[in-house]
Amino acid sequence: MNRNRRHKQATSSEERVLRLIRHTLKPEFRKLVDSGIRVAIGDDAAVFRARPGYETVLTCDWFLQGTHFLLDRHPPDAVGWKCLARAASDLAAMGAEPRCFLLSLALPTSRTGAWLREFLNGLRAASQKLNCPVAGGDTTRHEDVLINITVVGECRRGQAVLRSGAQPGDAIFASGQLGEAEYGLQILRSTRGYLNSGDPLLRKHLYPEPRLALGAWLGKQRLATAMMDLSDGLSTDLPRLCWASGVGARIEECQLPVIDAPATREKHVNAVSLALHGGDDYELLFTVAPKNVAKIPQRFAGTAITRIGEITSARKTVLINKKGPAKALPQRGWDPFRENQK
Amino acid sequence: MNRNRRHKQATSSEERVLRLIRHTLKPEFRKLVDSGIRVAIGDDAAVFRARPGYETVLTCDWFLQGTHFLLDRHPPDAVGWKCLARAASDLAAMGAEPRCFLLSLALPTSRTGAWLREFLNGLRAASQKLNCPVAGGDTTRHEDVLINITVVGECRRGQAVLRSGAQPGDAIFASGQLGEAEYGLQILRSTRGYLNSGDPLLRKHLYPEPRLALGAWLGKQRLATAMMDLSDGLSTDLPRLCWASGVGARIEECQLPVIDAPATREKHVNAVSLALHGGDDYELLFTVAPKNVAKIPQRFAGTAITRIGEITSARKTVLINKKGPAKALPQRGWDPFRENQK
Q: What pLDDT shows up at residue B199?
């Protein structure tokens, strides 16, 4: 009897977690239909109907306690927002639009109350903002909070922008300001006690906004010859694009859209280093053929777009500044298998 | 200089992991095209083209060290096989066929050598057997081995079999023998020293085979009114199907397809309890309207199919045996949030 009662209570605990997830994230019926979702959370799998003339774009993304966020420093709603936003950024990088997502969540029993509620509130906010409702998922218990997000998106047939299309002579562009998120992380790490998550300097790190409209526009207009998102830092990501395209790149230091907050000057922050090696910006890095360069606006939907260099045939990435000859750009961005990662 | 060299070596470590994954799992070009994959591993996201007249079926599944497998007891190739096989079982439960999968893998540096190679060999074997090539993924470092698999499948429009269609009077069927995987786990836990992973009694636990052909046939013939896979044990999964359908169920103990290995009799194993509460079988549980019961064969592609009970309108799950009145069936299968889980 005792045993059965214990089982019943415990089962309720799992059911409670699932109910909270469903209750918080469940979109309106209309939204489900609009997103192509035919069967949502609650069955063995989700059913999604692709639109005729479109291809399905799929990405999955880890977001792990200790590796990608700090449980005692990052607000739970920021964890919820960011796990979906950064996954959706991979779709922006393909020129695709998000349609729905699957949430895989593992967490300790101690986080199934207030923490989970706030996490889900942040996730719901991102889901609404990105027009990307939940379609399914998997939940289990683990001593750490582990998140994996699969985002399902669409782009018109043959319009996905790959990493592999850059040609020597193409101009290299980046959206936004680079290094902003890394600077926010530094502030977060150095702040003792109360953290003001509304601080504009923290915003880019806590609540990144994937450049979906820009990516979709570049894809639709066929202006980008290659594209990817900047998640691990320019010095690590640009060589990946170059490798995929079989080319090299030359970056002009003076052109980099570095951060310029008064605070950074006060604290003698190296803004160039942040722009080159800082991760988590989720800006777009893309290349444009010379004949199309004039079609790229200086701003798109409020976001700056900056020409930062040129694709070369030299199969290496170099940095040019006014002080001397071109130098090889060391890959000092985020690398999970690097020992002593900051 | 020293610093750069360290960075270079470390970057190579991540590149080596990615290269090994690509090299081991990369399907032939023909296979990619046949599976609808237009852009595979190596870009920001995968691109998949759904077949006209089909819907896309999507599922994701955790497979975590400590929670779902024991790093020191489970052979790495079994971990690789099982993580994909159990995720694909969710598609079998919808009557869908797998098309491709995404691999999210987090592991410590110490497991990036022999362990990773064997894991990938097992995963490749499952991928080939299930005709389900890799399309993308995400890799990072973590102190535990963490796996999340997203499987993308297809079924013809409107033919997905849901959990919610069972009606009072429908017969309840299960494929295979129930409790076999749990029994294998017990052997694995009690074995000291060398483990013979070829032992037939361990096979169901280590290398489960999702009932894809059976699920697809039931879906295509429209014979199953409701279906799900048995992953957490009959006593936990059946109430989920009943809840989704707004019905109850009566199970006949003497009909249960329990295991009958000589070893289980020797060791006084309770085969009925294993069949009711043992998890990880990945057999199919489905319901059939009375008029169609005669169309269900006793075996399908070598797998036994057994009628184990009937759907009722009573909104509870009861067990009938010869000894006395019907008893409520306690949910004693796998529940991640239950304390003191075996």
A: 85
**Dist CA A128 CA A120 (whole Å):** 12
A14 with B62: Cβ contact below 8 A? no
Instruction: Give the C-alpha distances (Å, rounded to integers) separating B32 from A57, A116, B29, B49, B187.
Output: 15, 39, 5, 11, 39
Q: Which pair of structure tokens corresponds to residue B256?
A: 């249960």
Compute CA B75 distance to the chain's CA centroid, rounded to the nearest angstrom.
17
Q: What pLDDT digit, counting tens, does each position of A33-83 carry? A: 999 999 999 899 999 999 999 999 999 999 999 999 999 999 999 999 999
Cβ distance of B48 and A64 shorter than 8 Å: no
Is the pLDDT at A3 greater than 50? The verdict is no
Q: Is the dihedral of CA B245, B250, B255, B258 positive or negative?
A: positive
* Amino acid present at A247: V
**B106 has a chain A CB within 8 A of its CB:** yes
* Residue B138: strand pairing partners: B104
Q: Do A39 and B109 touch (CB under 8 A)?
A: no
CB B165 within 8 A of CB B64: no
For residue A171, give Cα distances in angstroms to A160, A211, A223, A286, B9. 19, 19, 11, 8, 30
Rg of chain B on CA atoms, in Å: 21
B:176-205 residues touching chain A, CB 8 A cutoff = none
Tens digits of per-residue pLDDT, A129-151? 999 999 999 999 999 999 999 99
B contact residues 251-310, partner A, Cβ 8 Å cutoff: none
Residue B235, chain A, CB below 8 Å: the answer is no
Contacts of A73 (CB under 8 A, 6+ apart): A188, A189, A195
Which phi and psi angles does A127 have, rounded to 5°?
Answer: -60, -40
B44 and chain A in contact, CB less than 8 A: yes
Q: Which residue from B minimizes the CA distance to A101? A: B58
Position A289 pLDDT exceeds 80: yes
This complex has an ipTM of 0.93
Cβ burial of B230 (10 Å; 0-12, 13-18, 19+) is buried
Which residue among A67, A112, A227 places its CB closest to the CB of B140? A67
Does the distance separating the beta carbons of B17 and A142 come in below 8 Å? Answer: no
- B55, B93, B138 ranked by CB distance to A60: nearest: B138
pTM score, two decimals?
0.93
d(CA B83, CA B133) in angstroms, rounded, equals 14
Chain A: residue whose CA lies nearest to B164: A43
Q: What is the dihedral of CA B329, B334, B335, B338, to 10 degrees?
A: 90
B117-148 residue pLDDT tens: 999 999 999 999 999 999 999 999 999 999 99
What span, in angstroms and rounded, lies between the C-alpha atoms of B285 and B227?
6
Which residues of chain A lie closer than 8 angstroms to B63, CB-CB?
none
Residue A295 has what DSSP assignment?
A: G
